[in-house]
C-alpha cells in the first residue's frame, strides 16, 4: 500500500485531512483550530512538543523487551545521575553533555529501536507473480 505524505498542506486543501486513508500531512500552525475538530487524526504539534491521540484510536505499546530497553536507555541519557544514585560512593561527576550531544544520543536510541523493530521485515514480503510485472505484497500477519 502507498499512503500520501504531504510536507505542507496548502490552505485550500484542508478538507484532505478528512479523507479515510492513512496519511502524514504537515499543516501550518495557523490552522490549529481547524484541525482540532478532526476525530480520528493523531496530531503531533512539532512546535509545542505535544501529541493529541483521540480516544477512538488504539495504539499498541512497543513489544517487550524493546519497550523496557528503550525506556532504560532514554532514562540513562536524560537523567544520567539515576545510574549511580544508589552508590555509597558515587564516581566523580563528568561534565554534562551539551544539547547537541544529548540530541545525538536520543537519536541513536531511536535509530537502534527502529532497526530492531524492522529487522526481519523481508520475511513478511510475498512475491505475487500473477501479473506481467511481479508485485511485492507486505503480509502483516507474519
From TrEMBL:
It comes from the Eukaryota. The keyword Hydrolase does not apply. InterPro entries: cDENN_dom, DENN_C, DENN_Domain_GEFs, Tripartite_DENN. GO terms for cellular component: cytoplasmic vesicle. GO terms for biological process: regulation of Rab protein signal transduction. It holds the Pfam family DENN. The gene is Sbf2_1. Keywords: Guanine-nucleotide releasing factor. This is MTMRD protein. The keyword Disulfide bond does not apply. Gene3D superfamilies: 3.40.50.11500. PROSITE patterns: DENN. GO terms for molecular function: guanyl-nucleotide exchange factor activity. Residues 1-142 form the UDENN domain.
Amino acid at each position: 500500500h502507498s499512503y500520501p505524505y504531504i510536507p505542507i498542506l496548502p490552505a485550500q486543501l484542508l478538507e484532505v485531512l478528512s479523507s479515510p486513508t492513512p496519511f502524514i500531512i504537515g499543516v501550518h500552525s495557523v490552522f490549529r483550530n481547524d484541525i482540532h475538530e478532526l476525530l480520528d487524526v493523531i496530531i503531533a504539534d512539532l512546535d509545542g512538543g505535544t501529541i493529541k491521540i483521540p480516544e477512538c484510536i488504539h495504539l499498541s505499546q512497543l513489544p517487550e523487551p524493546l519497550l523496557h530497553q528503550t525506556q532504560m536507555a532514554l532514562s540513562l541519557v536524560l537523567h544520567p545521575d539515576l545510574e549511580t544514585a544508589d552508590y555509597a560512593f558515587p564516581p566523580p561527576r563528568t561534565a554534562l553533555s551539551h544539547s547537541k550531544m544529548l540530541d545525538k544520543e536520543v537519536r541513536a536510541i531511536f535509530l537502534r529501536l527502529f532497526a530492531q523493530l524492522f529487522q526481519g521485515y523481508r520475511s513478511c514480503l510475498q512475491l505475487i507473480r500473477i501479473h506481467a510485472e511481479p508485485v511485492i505484497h507486505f503480509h502483516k500477519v507474519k
